């Protein structure tokens, strides 16, 4: 038997048969869990007294307020909670509305529909977008019979899919926009700019992306993204009132202190360096200091990579994982965007060959959303952050080594 280290390095342990089997196991368990959860609910309220789709109830309530001409009031936690209680019952826990007014462009139309219909349209509509983008990233290798037979199963069984469905969250939309932007960037820079701009509804994703685009000199994409964001701001100000933007800015500091710094959302649920320090009992200033160091290091690596001759797939994977590492406010359902990194590197590996440890790291990246919250909650082990950081560091190190070998080919052969 080959030593474990060599098997991890080669990745030959993760055969197509095992990939299919693991995916089927996770998918069956996920479907069973969803079926039981829905079966135990009553009137759209689960056995814990929460609306099905939990976080989506926040979007729906905020959207209804926007339709009535009171978008700014959605940023008042008391008024927003009162609307949630009005819709879902007096015992409904609070799910905050933290998004910029851009997201009203989605939340308000959905609030026209009955809640169960709106939830279904939201979940399955954005899930379809996510799957379409993952399929597009893999298009060049889907002629392979193994890929053609397994890719959809692996994408649906990805544990972050179940997490996102359980929360009624926007991870599918984020992954679709991020993946579409990266896919379009080499040949369709204008479309990429529009996709990146649409991702602005998720401000915490915007820390690393501008540095990558600047480093690569993607000026058309940058200009289009800036113009598109300006247009979105103008449209939302016209539709929902400029005061909605003022209310969003004013609420941001409160939400940062309550949900992030004090851990109201749960440090085990957050997947960042900031949360790791707080989970281990560190102070808020120390957590911010560690997060700042991680963010700067990650951005520096992204800038180097995007300025180099590194292939587009590895640039994309580093930017996706770096985006998660650079922000203090990343939750477990945000890990769905890892599917974009996995898809890009899988396609590249099947075309040109996988680098050492790459297959094993991709396997770890795929399974980690299933373990991240539980490991942090029960063992105080921030496995989500650690796996993503390890993946980022290994991929960046290999990229730097290959860049050095390309500059000094004779030395690399010795």
From TrEMBL:
Membrane-spanning residues: 21-40, 60-82, 94-113, 119-138, 150-167, 222-242, 286-306, 365-395
The entry's keywords: Cell membrane, Membrane, Transferase, Transmembrane, Transmembrane helix
InterPro entries in UniProt: GT87
Top-level taxon: Bacteria
Presence of keyword Transferase: yes
Membrane topology term: Multi-pass membrane protein
UniProt keyword annotation of Transmembrane helix present: yes
Primary subcellular site in the record, as a coarse category: membrane
Compartment(s): Cell membrane
Family: Belongs to the glycosyltransferase 87 family.
Name this polypeptide is given: DUF2029 domain-containing protein
Organism classification: Bacteria, Pseudomonadati, Pseudomonadota, Alphaproteobacteria, Hyphomicrobiales
């Amino acid at each position: 038997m080959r030593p474990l280290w060599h098997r991890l390095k080669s990745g030959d342990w993760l055969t197509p048969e095992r990939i299919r089997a693991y995916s089927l196991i996770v998918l069956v368990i996920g479907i069973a869990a969803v079926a039981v959860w829905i079966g135990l609910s009553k009137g759209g309220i689960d056995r814990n007294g929460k609306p099905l789709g939990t976080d989506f109830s926040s979007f729906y309530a905020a959207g209804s307020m926007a339709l009535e001409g009171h978008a700014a009031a959605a940023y008042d936690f008391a008024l927003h909670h009162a609307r949630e209680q009005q819709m879902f019952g007096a015992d409904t826990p609070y799910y905050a509305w933290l998004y910029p007014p851009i997201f009203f462009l989605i939340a308000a139309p959905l609030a026209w529909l009955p809640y169960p219909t709106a939830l279904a349209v939201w979940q399955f509509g954005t899930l379809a977008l996510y799957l379409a983008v993952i399929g597009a990233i893999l298009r060049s290798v889907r002629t392979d019979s193994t890929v053609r037979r397994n890719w959809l199963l692996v994408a649906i069984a990805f544990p972050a899919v179940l997490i996102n469905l359980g929360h009624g969250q926007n991870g599918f939309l984020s992954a679709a926009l991020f993946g579409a932007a990266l896919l379009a960037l080499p040949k369709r820079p204008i479309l990429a700019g529009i996709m990146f701009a649409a991702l602005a509804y998720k401000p915490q994703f915007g820390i690393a992306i501008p540095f990558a685009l600047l480093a690569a000199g993607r000026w058309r994409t940058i200009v289009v993204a800036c113009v598109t964001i300006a247009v979105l701001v103008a449209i939302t100000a016209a539709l929902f009132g400029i005061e909605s933007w003022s209310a969003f800015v004013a609420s941001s500091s409160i939400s940062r202190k309550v949900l992030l710094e004090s851990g109201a959302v749960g440090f085990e649920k957050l997947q960042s360096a900031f949360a790791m320090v707080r989970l281990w009992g560190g102070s808020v200033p120390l957590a911010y200091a560690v997060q700042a160091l991680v963010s700067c290091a990650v951005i520096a690596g992204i800038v180097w990579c995007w300025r180099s001759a590194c292939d587009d797939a590895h640039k994309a994977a580093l930017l996706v994982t770096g985006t998660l590492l650079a922000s203090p406010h990343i939750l477990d359902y945000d890990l769905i965007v890892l599917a974009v990194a996995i898809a890009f590197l899988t396609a590249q590996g099947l075309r040109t060959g996988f680098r050492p440890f790459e297959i094993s790291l991709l396997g770890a990246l795929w399974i980690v959303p299933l373990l991240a919250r539980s490991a942090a909650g029960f063992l105080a082990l921030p496995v989500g952050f650690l796996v993503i950081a390890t993946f980022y560091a290994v991929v960046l190190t290999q990229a730097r080594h290959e860049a050095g070998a390309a500059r000094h080919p004779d030395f690399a052969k010795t």
